[in-house]
């Protein structure tokens, strides 16, 4: 009997490790990542750091099968979530993305849709049925986890687009949480936000990490030091594809890096 791959069963929130094995990536003939392997443990925030163009976003997008949306893009390697290869031929793209959510650089709520409907929007996309009561509960739960409930509880029917940038980003986090992902990927989630909103998102990340495995791309070294427990330093030297120079506990990466290039980067000497 042949085994059919299925995505692991989702309980409420259930953080699990995500493992990338020997990931290489191309845009057409241009190779941008070379055999990148990284374990992103459960209940930890992993920060991907490195200079512009070294492949951090490409790697992040490979982790939830968004890379394949680009016509010229291809990849090699495997991504394992709790014992299942998300690139297995039997795994549906929508299932992979349901388990592994993404928050982008620029907050992208549906602007004309109400705050309430923004949060539950993912249910429709993933074909999940819910009663009105279940939705009400989910909206409060996810907005609370995203640190937004108290600010919007009296105006859930107002459009998402009327919120501030920082509130919109927290709404996007709530929307991602509503399908109960096991992993949340964040691509520079604070780069469009002011310092106060940034701090609020960082607090939200800290509160979420026990329930959702978080991987964040950031250019801000102070932010990487504040929010992550593990860091991976990517580099693409002189036109070569991006690779990981060094990965490890955040404290070690900042205070006792093994590779001098890591020390130079985290201390702001290049990039
Ligand atoms: N859609 C695309 N088509 C072609 N090449 C691309 C595409 N997206 C990215 N690239 C190339 O892939 C390489 C890696 O880009 P990527 O955006 O992953 O790097 P990054 O480290 O996230 O950069 P940044 O920090 O500036 O966001 C770069 O050389 C970039 O030009």
UniProtKB/TrEMBL annotation:
It comes from the Bacteria. GO terms for molecular function: ATP binding; ATP hydrolysis activity; phosphate transmembrane transporter activity. Residues 18-266 form the ABC transporter domain. One of its GO terms (cellular component) is membrane. CDD domains: ABC_PstB_phosphate_transporter. One of its GO terms (biological process) is phosphate ion transmembrane transport. InterPro entries: AAA+_ATPase, ABC_transporter-like_ATP-bd, ABC_transporter-like_CS, P-loop_NTPase, PstB-like. Coiled coil: none annotated. PROSITE patterns: ABC_TRANSPORTER_1, ABC_TRANSPORTER_2. Keywords: ATP-binding, Nucleotide-binding, Translocase, Transport. This is Phosphate import ATP-binding protein PstB. It comes from Paractinoplanes tereljensis. The gene is pstB_2.
């Amino acid at each position: 009997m042949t085994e059919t791959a299925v995505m692991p069963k989702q309980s409420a929130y259930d953080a699990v490790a995500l493992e990338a094995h020997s990931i290489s990536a191309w845009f057409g003939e241009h190779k941008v990542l070379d055999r990148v392997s990284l374990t992103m443990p459960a209940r930890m925030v992993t920060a991907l750091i490195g200079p512009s163009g070294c492949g951090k976003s490409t790697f992040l997008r490979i982790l939830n099968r968004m890379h394949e949306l680009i016509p010229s893009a291809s990849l090699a390697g495997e991504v394992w979530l709790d014992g299942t290869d998300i690139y297995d031929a039997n795994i549906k793209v929508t299932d992979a993305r349901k388990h592994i959510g993404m928050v982008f650089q620029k907050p992208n709520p549906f602007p004309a849709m109400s705050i309430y409907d923004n949060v539950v929007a993912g249910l429709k996309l993933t074909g999940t049925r819910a009663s009105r009561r279940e939705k009400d509960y989910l909206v409060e739960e996810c907005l609370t986890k995203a640190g937004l409930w108290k600010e919007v509880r009296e105006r859930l029917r107002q459009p998402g687009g009327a919120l501030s940038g920082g509130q919109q980003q927290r709404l996007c986090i709530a929307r991602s949480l509503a399908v109960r992902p096991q992993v949340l990927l964040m691509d520079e989630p604070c780069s469009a936000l002011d310092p106060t909103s940034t701090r609020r998102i960082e607090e939200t990340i800290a509160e979420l990490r026990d329930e959702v495995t978080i991987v964040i791309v950031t250019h801000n070294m102070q932010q990487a030091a504040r929010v992550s427990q593990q860091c991976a330093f990517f580099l693409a030297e002189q036109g070569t594809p991006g690779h990981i120079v060094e990965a490890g506990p955040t404290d070690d990466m900042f205070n006792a890096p093994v590779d001098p290039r890591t020390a130079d980067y985290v201390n702001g000497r290049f990039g």
